[in-house]
Amino acid sequence: MIAYLGGVSLEGGASTTATFLHRFILCISRHPRVQARAQKDLDAVVGKDRMPQMDDITQLPYIEAIIKEVHRFYTTSALAIPHATSTDESVEGYFIPTGSIVFMNIFGIYHSEELYDDPLVFRPERFLESEFGTKSGADTAGLRGDLHFGSGRRICPGSHLANNAINMNALNILWGFDITHVSGENEGRDLPITPEDFTSGMAPGPKPFKCNIKPRSERHAALIRKAFSEARSIFRMFEHELAVDEFISAEEE
Ligand code: HEM
């Protein structure tokens, strides 16, 4: 049972968080204006003498807005996991008998023109303008800020872990690196959104794309190397067969 629970958590947690970060990096690489605003906030709150910590996110509403917009724009699990009705139900005149398979169309809700202005435009600012990023006058009854984790009794049990991992990664990536689209063009206009642009599965990620990722300065790079070195013993437990040691020994020379 313990192995089963561990396996389910690993399965449910690894690809979802990883593909979210792929989508996050894709969005950032195509939106230099968004990246610049996030880094300006990070410089004011965190500065350049330390790396971000978990609590910093509470003082960085624009970065929270970016994360929410990536969840909305690139819904991780478009239809969640199929549910089934345990009783006869009636919704807006439709009879749904016991045992019907029901999908939650999260992508549909997150891209509804009734709820969002320009839903196919990536614009984190919408989440600073209203609680759910919705347009003025939208009927938000029943809407939640975390629909991307599903609904009801089978809602994602890993949402808190996922939020912590995503927040920490987003803070570190934006604090430490400049990410640019390789062509340097098409700002904000070419985020792929059709299914053909994505891998298949429950949590599709973007197909391989090119971008440049460079430390923002030698000062940032030095602090990242130091943090990496300090985490060495933890990495060792999990990644002893990977090339981490080569990186560290090169670092120590
Ligand atoms: C970006 C991160 C994640 C997203 C967007 C996400 C999203 C979802 C969604 C939409 C569902 C289906 C809920 C429903 O049908 O109502 C789900 C289920 C599930 N998730 Fe996540 N998830 C994420 C991360 C994680 C993590 C980190 C873990 C565990 C460590 C996890 C474990 C699970 C499990 C075990 C289920 C099945 C729950 C059940 O059927 O009772 N997820 N997730």
From TrEMBL:
It comes from the Eukaryota. This is Cytochrome P450. Heme binds at residue 156. It comes from Cerrena zonata. Belongs to the cytochrome P450 family. Keywords: Heme, Iron, Membrane, Metal-binding, Monooxygenase, Oxidoreductase, Transmembrane, Transmembrane helix. The keyword Manganese does not apply. Its cofactor is heme. It holds the Pfam family p450. PANTHER family: CYTOCHROME P450 MONOOXYGENASE ALNH-RELATED, P450, PUTATIVE (EUROFUNG)-RELATED-RELATED. It is found in: Membrane. Pathway: Secondary metabolite biosynthesis. One of its GO terms (molecular function) is monooxygenase activity. One of its GO terms (cellular component) is membrane. The keyword Membrane applies.
